[in-house]
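Known limitations

Structure tokens in this collection are predictions and should be treated as such. Users comparing against experimental data should check residue numbering before alignment. To illustrate the layout, the record for Tryptophan synthase beta chain-like PALP domain-containing protein is reproduced below. The input appears on top and the generated tokens appear beneath it.
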Amino acid sequence: MTSILLARAQAVPDFTPTLTPVEEHGGVLVKREDAWSRGGASGAKARALFSVADGAAGLLSAGARISPQLERAALVAQALGIPARLHTGWGKVTPETSVAVSTGAELFRHRPGRLSVIRARYRADAERLAPMGWACVPFGMEHPTYLQQVSEQASRLPWTRRIVVPVGSGMTLAAILRGLNAAGNPSPVLGVRVGGDPTRLLNWYSPRWEGRASLIDAEDSFDTAVGNVLGNLRLDPHYEAKTLPFLQEGDLLWAVGVRASALP
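Generated tokens:
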């Protein structure tokens, strides 16, 4: 199974436009950040990981066992020919950890598997490795490169009835709001929360975000994969797909990217 997942990931063709397209699928517009692909890793977060890790001695990152950040970081490091160290929680093997291990990445499983523990182990490793030239990208893509790149993409969006965004850590939503504000784009934003509480990062990276965006909880828990097809477009089953019950005609869905282990 692991080799099949990795083969699927590596089969995704590269498509790396400077400005990712907006297309119509299933009656709504979709910002196709998921269309960006390199080395089997797709989406805005993969793009940022490549930018940060290019020329680095190695790539350090962290995420929950079902976080696509694990496999994306591993695939990016493999494509760049550098080592990867990944911190996650203790527990059973997941498709995401399988892809990561298959690339040769070192996967460190911490017990207990709380995010606070994962973050602490990552920080300790980053303090040691950053001075040695390693690229360090924390849990939730809390990195200035990701913030800048997504903000630039958002600043080019057309005015629309409403922008719908899946919200995990809050970094993507914060970056989109920054871009919209910089461009003077008044489109309202609905964030569909699929993870924990994102308000800490939203308050820090996009102060007064409540004036532009509202949050609503997804109908399913973070670890539940749901039906993920919009028209002829496949969405990530843990993130974008959970916006489907809330989409309406005239909306624009921001598609961050599909994890490699969910590819057909």
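For this record: The chain has two domains: 2-44+142-262, 45-140. The domain at 2-44+142-262 is CATH 3.40.50.1100 (Rossmann fold). Please report discrepancies through the issue tracker.
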